[in-house]
Amino acid sequence: MKNAVAVVVLGICGSVFCATSCSDKQTEKDYTVYVNPFIGTGGHGHTFPGPVTPHGMIQPGPDTRIDGWDACSGYYYEDSTINGFSHTHVSGTGCADYGDFLLMPTVGEQQYDPQDYSSQTLPYASAFSHENEVAVPGYYSVFLDRYQVKAELAATPRAAIHRYTFPESDKSGFILDLDYSIQHQTNLDMQVEVVSDTEIRGHKLTEYWAFDQQLSFYAKFSKPFTYTIVRDTLADPKGKMQPRCKVLLNFKTEKDEQVLAKVGISAVDMDGAQKNLEAEIPDWDFEKVRSDAHDAWNGCLSKIDVSAKNETDKTIFYTAMYHAAVSPNLFTDVDGRYLGMDLKVHQGDAGKPVYTIFSLWDTFRALHPLYSIIDPQLNNEFINSLLLKNREGGIFPMWDLASNYTGTMIGYHAASLIADAYAKGNADFDLHDAYKACLRAAEYDTTGIKCPAAVLPHLMPMAKYYKNALGYIPCDLENESVAKALEYAYDDYCISVLAEAAGDYRNSEKYRKFAKAYTLYFDPSTRFMRGVDSKGNWRTPFNPKASNHRNDDYCEGNAWQWSWFVPHDVEGLVELMGGEDAFAGKLDSLFTADSTIEGELVSADISGLIGQYAHGNEPSHHVIHLYNYINRPWKTQELVDRVLKEQYRNAPDGLSGNEDCGQMSAWYILNSMGFYQVCPGKPVYSIGRPIFDKAEIRLEDGKVFSVVTENNSPENKYIASVLLNGQPLNEPFLNHRDIAEGGTLEIRMTGQPTRWGVKPVKAE
């Protein structure tokens, strides 16, 4: 984030010591007071409250849950016991992984043999109360009732520091659990070495969502210990023998004695973990680490300053800013080494960091467009990481986890990030290389891809072959055919933009035609996007409310939600549906239809329903803004207002679906300021309903773009008039350059729908 108000040591929404993004002056206003890290830890938000730094490599935090969908982040607000504090977590995902190197303080005889596999509680777990739990950006603490120990955690980008306040005891200690993981992952290899009476290091290789997740650690303790290493095998809940590896540490403590532990991690090796720790936490100054993390977060949050009468709205907003800066995660060690997509160690440049955790199916929609505004340099770092992964692994990742191809979700949305950066004039990468990588992703070609055999059909599905060879994807030959086809059409539009930029006019025309393929799935008789089989027939029976999770013609949705995914050609979709009035009628029915989802295995991701509109999952996120394209902007305004008020709350269950690595929050950030990008790759924002009296976006080179909302109130949700830099703006759209150059958008609100933004009827 290149701004005049920035942070000290730890960088902005990058991760490490970034000279280009930081100024010498600290931000005077404390934005962190408005962050509630517990938002999304209940319901199905799947966030975690641990003390991360912006885009940090390490994510230390409490683990309360092992099994089930709501264990994805390792923490669930409804739980009452803590199993310990592991050092890696994913934020807001719909799948689980991580939970590496769990540390738990103990007092008394250490228990570690499992007693109840049906419970979420390990034998050494402790009860706790939320009344004795604190989470703020960069710091977490909790009181462990069983042991009468206060636990505190803080973090740098690559290391964590723990501080535990013990009671008086001859039997104080820690359990360092290497075989612990979220959702009982397969531990393929675990190595541990006690270096001295204050140092331990180790390595772990795990198979789960990431088939080859490698991680090393180095830990240093402030108090000497004696130890016992437990290495054996034990039957898991399914009766399968699994290896165990735990280190039992013991020492004596006085009343209120503080014992500290420092832990560095690395995906490269144990030496890398030690270097990371020694570089970032050389001393035992817990408060300095805490303070530096706070300053890093304050600089990150200060990129946007909002003014509001309602303090709750500010809490939701800055928590959204916080969640939007948790991932992607730094993956480069302090010496520049990193684990590549080929699962080999590479020597890179620490000043040009590599990142992991790219949930692109989610984040291409709003998170990366947000960063294209508030930190285009960081967004380019993300893109360059993806280009590097393409070179190392043979193709862009769809969902990169710890430099693993997971093959999760659909589409090839790296093309979206690249096209959007180019369209906005922010392309700090080799355009021709990026374009060639996008072409590679769009063609069916399995050669040279370095991934497990089980992943390859998902990473390179036959759908791409059918799309290119047949012109469409037959639903009897390929699962999720409609969703894949619609997303491919959008991504192919993005490729056409890049082809034209690269001067490849033949492919530009080819991919423009591919972008029109959505028309093949529209059934005029039902006016829904439907599956077409290899004989050219519509799939029957057809029920637009039906959902069979990841095993029908759609992806985490149904026909009601997917029939609107043509962001690159809204005008064409309107025409396909019979013109503006017919389109409006159909769109109205989306929000008024019965909210029942039918089927034997309904996707749990279909949530946050208003009619059949599902705000809790990403395919619906652009839909509200489609009214702006058909001369009914007041409907966009009232629906944006409704979603902002009803589906985002200052509560553990304050998100209507998974956080999804910042996408759910980025939607809120953009829409609460009054605009949203319907089609990344087209540098245009659709204007909705701002909820803040003023929002100042602090841009590069000291520029500021302000959205000033006059006559603002909960009741006044409609736009009466708009001025852009003092000149009337009579259409509900805003260009990216209008924001990037700085200026002021003045929006006057009223309590009744108006004709603002409606195109005048042309005279005959």
From TrEMBL:
Enzyme class: hydrolase
Signal peptide: 1-18
Name under which the protein is recorded: GH92 family glycosyl hydrolase
Entries under Pfam families matching the protein: Glyco_hydro_92, Glyco_hydro_92N
Enzyme Commission number(s): 3.2.1.-
Keyword set, alphabetical order: Calcium, Glycosidase, Hydrolase, Signal
One record GO biological process: glycoprotein catabolic process
One GO CC annotation: cytosol
Domain of life per record: Bacteria
Start and end residues of each Glycosyl hydrolase family domain: 272-750
Subunit structure: Monomer.
Annotated ranges, domain Glycosyl hydrolase family 92 N-terminal: 34-266
InterPro entries on file: 6-hairpin_glycosidase_sf, GH-type_carb-bd, GH92_a_mannosidase_put, GH92_N, Glyco_hydro_92, PNGase
Any coiled-coil regions, as ranges: none
GO MF annotation terms: carbohydrate binding; hydrolase activity, acting on glycosyl bonds; peptide-N4-(N-acetyl-beta-glucosaminyl)asparagine amidase activity
CC cofactor: Ca(2+)
